[in-house]
Structure formats: C-alpha cells, structure tokens
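To close the chapter, one final illustration. This time we ask the reader to focus less on the individual chains and more on the assembly as a whole: which components sit near each other, and how the overall shape emerges from the parts.
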Amino acid sequence: MAYEQLKLDNQLCFRLYTAARLTMGTYHPYLDPLGITYPQYLVLLVLWEQDKQPVNDIAHKLFLETNTVTPLLQRMEKAGLVKRAKGKEDTRQRIVSLTKKGIAMREQAKHIPDCLSDEIIKISGEEEEFVRMIPTLDKLIEGLKQQ
Amino acid sequence: MAYEQLKLDNQLCFRLYTAARLTMGTYHPYLDPLGITYPQYLVLLVLWEQDKQPVNDIAHKLFLETNTVTPLLQRMEKAGLVKRAKGKEDTRQRIVSLTKKGIAMREQAKHIPDCLSDEIIKISGEEEEFVRMIPTLDKLIEGLKQQ
DNA sequence: TCAATTTATATCGTTCACGATGCAAATATA
DNA sequence: TATATTTGCATCGTGAACGATATAAATTGA
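The assembled structure is written out below.
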C-alpha cells in the first residue's frame, strides 16, 4: 500500500499536536481562577525567573516571535500583570516588568507544577515515562529552533 | 527554594507545546505548495482513510471540538477540497466528502510523511528516539481525552 | 557625517482552538 | 402522542500563532 504512510496513526507530529493541546487543557482549572491563559502563564514564569526583560528576550525564551508576544504582553498589561516601559539605553526596546499583581501571582501559582504532576501520575500510574520524554523533546526543539 | 517548581526548565508541557509548534512549522514547505494548513492536512488524512464522514467523526478522530472543525471544513469547502452534504438518515448530520481536487491531493501528499521523517533524522542522526515517544504520547492522549 | 543597513517592536490579516450559546432534528419519556 | 431531553452542527467572541509589512531607533560603512 503506497499510501500507508499517510495514515494518521503513523504520525508523530499529530501526537505532539494533540498531546500539547490536551495537556494545556489540564492547566485550565488552575489558570482560570487566576484569570490568565497558558501562554500568559509562560510569560509570567519567564518574568518570575528574571524581572525586567525586553520583549525579544521573552520571545526567545518561549521560542515565539515578537509578533505573538507583543499582543500577549499588551493584554497582560491591560490585565494589570505587567508594565511595558521604553528602554533607557536602547529606546527601541520595551522593557517588560511585573506589577505588584504580577509578583503576587507567583505565590498563588507555585503549586501548579505539582498539581500538574499529580494529574499526570493519576493518568499513568507513574511519572517516569513522561519525564523520560524530556531530553528527546529538548533535542527536537534544539534541532528545529533555528528556522 | 520554594519557587523552584516554577522554573520554565522544569515543565514538560512547555516542551510539548514548543515541540508541537516547531514540528508543525516543518510541514510548511510541503503544505504551502498544496495551499493547505496542517489542521487541514489532518482532515484530509482522515478523509483519505475513509471518505464521507459526518463532522462529529472527523472531530473525534482529531480530538477536536466541532466548533473548531466546522469552520475548518467551511474553509476547505471554499477551497474546493471537500463537499458538505446533508445526511440522509439523520438530517442534522453534515456528511463531508472529498472532491476530485481533494482526492487528487492524496497523490501529491503521499511523500510528506517520509520527508518529515528525513527532516527528523537530519536533526537527530537517528529516528528511533523519537519513535519511542509515540506510545508515551498515546498514553498521555488516552488519559487526557475524556476531558 | 550622512546614507544604507540592521534591529526592536508594532500592526494587520488569516487561521486555528475553544468556551458559551443557539437551533433544529432526533430520541426518550410520560 | 405530546413534551422533555439529547444530539449534531453552527455561530460568536476571545486569545493565540505567525507571515507580511511598517516604523523608528541604532549601527555600519563609505
């Protein structure tokens, strides 16, 4: 069968695409009460690690384009989570910093990763199998990130 | 460190999310010439396996909601790839079938999975490691799919 | 120093993804 | 059989993603 390759079952990408969507869905019960989305949570993770970063740095750490991150940050600014100030050395830059609300959310969010781990353990009985994917995913991301 | 869990590096979901996006990006050179997107390609895969399916069946096979698939199919109908006819037994259903153009595209697309495998081999040196993720991803999807 | 190029961000248009809601047809139940 | 519920699909609104394009500031180079 010449078309065997076209079967959905054979596709790795389809599984990544589906697993990513469904996994993001499991964050809903934890992020909805905070009034944020998953990509916004990722931006907060980046800023909690280091406050006051230009748009480009945030975008790079998330492997996103600035034309995705800019509107994301605008919505987050509107929601009072971040401020966007003009850069002092380089005025083209927009330095993104956390507001008090954005800083405070760290405390509310700190249990989310453990909760998600628990969800995955509940699903699978054991976590190890999923943790074992991490280096492979990193390899894939590393290989694909330069265009 | 109480916040150690909140480091981006620790997150599995972030890797799935990123790997999925970047992998979908590698389809662009193959799908752009056909004038279709990755989700549209997935719909075609489903219909190439079995033509004439109601919206619900397509949505289920892709783990998507009908409110995602309906507009997708409307765009594909506009592009002349599929037709959407009222069901005969159950008139609530919309039976989606391939047009000649949609059928013909199967031939043009049949090398895409091999091309993608080659891309991944080029990145990694070997394919096995990625293939080994498949059962784990299936387990994850299986566990998450019932909401 | 002044024009050319690069860089940082923003804007626009299109396509998902999905929660919420609507509606008509089919099915179940009283 | 009349009413209630469920089912299948569609519509609407919002928030990503991302290609293409724009714009102003910084940098390079003649």
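Chain B touches chain A through 60 residues (CB under 8 Å). The CA atoms of residues 85 and 91 of chain B lie 9 Å apart. With these observations in hand, you are ready for the problems at the end of the chapter.
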